[in-house]
């Protein structure tokens, strides 16, 4: 599967969950995980976005992570694995 097709699939999933406007797909991070295309999202601040993060975590094929930035606040980022 090409990256462009995988991005279209992820955009459909995000729009179906009502997250299409809030979540942006990253153009700087790309990769594969086995046969799956990895489609990463841009990091979002953890503070004030707990409902958004919970919706993302509940989506199938999404793997999310929380990390501390150099500016001492937490960000949430992750990827969709699309086969």
- Overall form: globular
The sequence of SSEs as H and E is HEEEHEE
The biggest beta sheet reads: 5 strands, antiparallel
Q: What is the terminal-to-terminal distance?
A: 7 Å
Give the fraction of residues assigned to helices. 25-40%
The share of residues in extended strands comes to 35-45%
Number of domains: 1
Q: Return the average pLDDT rounded to an integer.
A: 92
| Contiguous helical run count | 2
Low-confidence stretches: none
Q: Report the radius of gyration as a whole number of Å.
A: 13 Å
Class per helix and strand makeup: alpha+beta
Please report the total strand number as a whole number.
5
Write structural notes for this entry.
The chain is of the alpha+beta class and 83 residues long. It has one domain. The protein has two helices and five strands, in the order H-E-E-E-H-E-E. Strands 1, 2, 3, 4 and 5 form a five-stranded antiparallel sheet that branches. A hairpin with a 2-residue loop joins strand 1 and strand 2. The N and C termini lie close together (7 Å). The mean pLDDT is 92.
In short:
This protein has one domain (3-82). Helix content is 28%, strand content 40%.
Draw up the topology in text.
Elements: H1 3-16, E1 25-33, E2 36-41, E3 44-45, H2 50-58, E4 62-68, E5 74-82
Antiparallel strand pairs: 1-2, 2-5, 3-5, 4-5
